[in-house]
Amino acid sequence: MEMLIMIHACKIASAERVTAVIPCYPYARQDKKDKSRAPISAKLVANMLSVAGADHIITMDLHASQIQGFFDIPVDNLYAEPAVLKWIKENIENWRECVIVSPDAGGAKRVVSIADRLNVNFALIHKERAVANEVQRMTLVGDVDNRIAIIVDDLADTCGTVVKAAEKLKEAGAKAVFAVMTHGVFSGPALERVMGSCIEAIVVSNTIPQHEKIARCPKIQVIDVSSIIGEAIRRTHNGESISYLLQNIPL
């Protein structure tokens, strides 16, 4: 709401252009009607931003890329992938022998992209939910025996999925399990679940502040993506292309 008020204030003050920088897009998971009479909140947020007067949106790792189609204004969806690749190479020993794992079918494209750039194998976990935010059953597709498994996803919310996925990977013979997520929401019992899990470390970006959560959960590590967002702002302001940022971290 504060952002909408600020956009409106800039607009009525005759601002030539207003760019809204939203590192973690709100209600991104509610991008479709999964049941009768359910709201499409992501579309509502898009409408509110447009009506308030935003001319351009900069965000990072949308839960579903089609959210960009909810807008009639330009949307730049940045990727944390370059920062994730850098972290893996710098912090995982023998990363060339690791396996990149998607905790659900929806994240397969993201995982394949990272695995290809690292030139390593990938695996997939198929999950079935009984109710929202609760996973009923999981099936592993791929080989992680005697390897380091790195779970990659866009959002860490209640962490029920990632913790159960880690247990499944350990059962399948993984030597160690790491989790890398772009947005660390950590709602409800998430921190307690992570602390009691077999996950070595859960790595998130700073699209959401993590200072208080790190104090409660030492397993959380943070990747800084401020340079990517800052360079995107500079390039947008100067009318330059941001395509370089989709594959690289700015120097």
Can you walk me through this structure?
The longest helix is centred in the N-terminal third of the chain and has 12 residues, at about 40-50. The two termini are about 35 Å apart. About 30% of the residues are buried. The protein has helices at about 1-10, 40-50, 80-90, 110-120, 160-170, 190-195, 210-215, 225-235, and strands spanning about 20, 55-60, 75-80, 100, 120-130, 135-140, 150-155, 175-185, 200-205, 220-225. It has a seven-stranded mixed beta sheet with strand order 6-5-4-7-8-9-10. A three-stranded parallel beta sheet has the order 1-2-3, covered by helices on one side. The model has no long low-confidence stretch (mean pLDDT about 95). It is built from eight helices and ten strands. With about 250 residues, it is an alpha/beta fold. Helices cover about 30% and strands about 25% of the residues.
Short key terms for the protein model shown above:
10 strands, 32% helix, single chain, 251 residues, 7-stranded mixed sheet, 8 helices, alpha/beta, globular, 3-stranded parallel sheet
Strand content: 25-35%
Average pLDDT works out at 93
Total of helices: 8
Structural class: alpha/beta
**Radius of gyration, Cα only, in angstroms?**
19 Å
Distance N to C terminus: 34 Å
Largest sheet: 7 strands, mixed
